Amino acid sequence: MTSFPQGFLWGGATAANQIEGAYNEGGKGLSIQDVMPGGAIKPSTQGPTDDNLKLKAIDFYNNYVEDIALFAEMGFKTFRFSIAWSRIFPNGDEQEPNEEGLAFYDRVLDELEKHGIEPLVTLSHYETPLGLARQYGGWRSRELIDFFAHYARTVFNRYKGRIRYWLTFNEINAVLAMPFTAGGIEVPRSELSESELYQAVHHELVASALATKIAHEIDPQNQIGCMIIAVPRYGITPDPRDQLTAQQKSHEDYAFGDIHVRGEYPGYLLREFREKGITIDITDEDREILKNTVDFVSFSYYMSVCEAHDPENYTTGGGNIIGGVVNPTLEASEWGWQVDPIGLRIVLNNYWERWQKPLFIVENGLGAKDVLIDGPSGPTVNDDYRIKYLNDHLVQVGEAIEDGVELLGYTTWGPIDLVSASTAQMSKRYGFIYVDRNDDGSGTLKRYKKKSFDWYREVIATNGESLEA
């Protein structure tokens, strides 16, 4: 017997800015990513520069037919991708959409439908139009709520009946750590007050709820999810002060899910606002809009962290934006992300018990420096380390399902090599498919199947029965 239910949505996840390329083709305007050559936390430049790998990425824009065929060969039931907002509204504030951009996603959907693959679409995946960032100050401006609603209404109408599963904002809780990446705010994090950051997040939360309302009005069959970063936080010792610190840090993660699911700000967050002197403008209309709650909760999961009330006495976690201190019981990836499969089971149970909403794992994967070698059928990668990582996490997913968690699906990040969001490298590879492109921009862009390609195909074909406990 398998733990995974029939109809489970196996697949992979991507973002437009990390795969599409063609940054100035098809009428597309600039997004914030087009001026971020150095990764998620690097300051932007004045315009696109040749060292920005995302400008070309892996050229999914011109290779989507081949890539989707490879996903189909693995047996994908779903494919998560994002619509580049600036491909639809080049500056972000236009009234009329760019038809070439809409038509591109029509063609992508045509290919997915040909192969029976369910689309799972993110409306905003760290891709705020640059015009909105520079002319309006990004999500600090309340005006962006209406611009986003207009964009959402446009694509909901255009793809009505073709896309059933939607996500509003990718990792919405990331604004607090990465204001430009996640909020289009072109001011260094150190120069922003917490009031400014939470005001920007509030605008995104209202926009997310408004998009949810619009989606349900246009098509009651639409299923709308929020998307948050999931990080289990363990007290570094049994000291109650460490456990309380872990709980309080966890509240920072839970808050955005709580608002999306329950339709109002939780008491613990309002207390934090009071005690820290954080003030944000929340109108009565905002409160009404927030009552439009999501149908499911989706999340990314890569690592766990430990927390301490006296963190200076411990080694600080490296390689991630989450913070925390190092867990001495866990190993870490090449980029310092601690590997914790059991943490995924803990997250699934915590979220299910907290919200009683269907869950969807929409990102989970291992970034590694793969080496292309000659195999019996051509160039390949022996990525047993990736197979082990995914296998061990999926075994824990099966355990969570046995625990009673309702889970819609699982999409790995990313099924094909893409430009890393955090480091803007190609060498930090996640895919089952190797793409011949290097950090210096060289390469043929040819696609090669890694060893994990056949492994994941077998996992999907057996609905998880091939996993090794």
Automatic annotation (TrEMBL):
It comes from the Bacteria. GO terms for biological process: carbohydrate catabolic process. Keywords: Glycosidase, Hydrolase. One of its GO terms (molecular function) is beta-glucosidase activity. One of its GO terms (cellular component) is cytosol. The active site is at 363 (nucleophile). InterPro entries: GH, GH_1_N_CS, Glyco_hydro_1, Glyco_hydro_1_AS. The keyword Hydrolase applies. PROSITE patterns: GLYCOSYL_HYDROL_F1_1, GLYCOSYL_HYDROL_F1_2. SUPFAM superfamilies: (Trans)glycosidases. Pfam families: Glyco_hydro_1. Belongs to the glycosyl hydrolase 1 family. NCBIfam families: PRK09852.1. This is Beta-glucosidase. The gene is bglA.
